[in-house]
Amino acid sequence: MRAAVLHETGQDKLEVLDDVEALGFGPGKVRIRVRATGLCHSDVSAMSGVLPQPAPFVPGHEGAGEIIEVGDGVRGLAPGDRALICWLPACGTCPACERGETHLCLAGFLNAGTPNFRRPGGDVFGFAGTGTFTEEVVVDAGCAVPIPDDVPFDVAALIGCGVTTGLGAAINTADVAAGSSVAVIGCGGVGVSAIQGARLKGAAQIVAVDPVAARREAALGFGATEAVAPEELTDAKQRITGGEGFDYVFEVVGRSATARTAYEATRRGGTLCVVGAGAMDDHLRLNMFELFFDEKRILPSLYGGGDVLRSYERAIALWRAGRIDLERMITHRVRLGEINEALEQMRTGTALRTCIEI
Questions:
Q1: How many of the other CB atoms lie within 10 Å of CB of 78?
Q2: What is the mean pLDDT of residues 201-224?
């Protein structure tokens, strides 16, 4: 079986191998033939070591495909079913799940420490307990979420992470108010999804902030009312808000420097929503006086901050109704053997989302 493998953390290229075997099939498991997977910035962050992930590993966590085999005890799934892969399944029994905060369930994270694959040289992990840069993957049944026949695999893959994360940040976590002002810092796939979410909620002004001109231009087509380079944000804040600051600012980069910029761009009493996944040793500095005096709400948003399965259903319903545009978010397509081209597109910012067709 073919899969793209990172041998050591810190390497910037993947090796596509044909001697990889998917492990773990048995009771409660399903085997999925991956048909499409998106390249998310979290994959690149895991490769560089920003996000913790044992190596060697197969990146990828934003995928969809066909179920080819189900283990004993699996209900509601059958061979031939179409499914997206959920990298953060809820166990349903832990304290977080019982509180209704299923996106905070740790069961999915525990899967990251169990090898998903094997090569002649030893075990190979799957990123975030999945690893979708491969032809086949074995996952817990809870990770396989059935999708309707009218949802293409590439669209389903986007819903599996980037769209759910960005839409949910605006709709669930921040709960953007109609008529408000919004700035989104970082306009890749997740940032553009946050822009679409803010537009759905009725924001009056949505400023897209990104250093890449092509991404700024694309953001205007997804609902941004203005797009500026990072060095132009201060001027936009002055022009649009009279210097007060935006009602909502979304940080979708995952760095303390941009989070600090986002904090300063937020008005007193406004909301800073932290969406980007950053490093454990990258600390955001705030002084106790400003924290007290400005009364800005700082809201982290993990995977859209809501029930994941309901978020999938909502995204599909909005896509069907033409309220969100998912197809145009896929700006590039490659085959698995061209995966390093996709990585370059991500790093240079030339792609909103690259779909790897397998």
A1: 12
A2: 97
